[in-house]
């Protein structure tokens, strides 16, 4: 019969080995190709006066996670969304500065009562100026095709 302490040592050793092999392997830093790139379609791009916002898909659907990157000519202080055809308050985007004037975030737009939502993205820059651009989200691709 195996002693209790020997069994615990074997479990600790095997779990440590699994951690080392799985947890310490180098991360794959290559970006996953987005849906719009797979289909060789253009990704949704919002062009502002002093910056651009790039979504990783060409169609924004409710309750999906999107990667959004920003390229700016001056520092961004904050970004938020406001729905235009429904009162929902502000949806604040928390930016990560990847490089100077290059930012990224994730975006999830919740399922709203209306199948087609009109949004305005606002960017406030460090100098106090604000820029805005509109885009549309849908419950599903079926609603986008019917409009």
UniProtKB/TrEMBL annotation:
Keyword Signal in record: yes
Tree of life domain: Bacteria
Region forming the signal peptide: 1-30
Keywords from the UniProt entry: Signal
PROSITE patterns recorded: PROKAR_LIPOPROTEIN (PS51257)
Name of the protein this chain belongs to: Lipoprotein
Organism this protein belongs to: Psychrosphaera haliotis
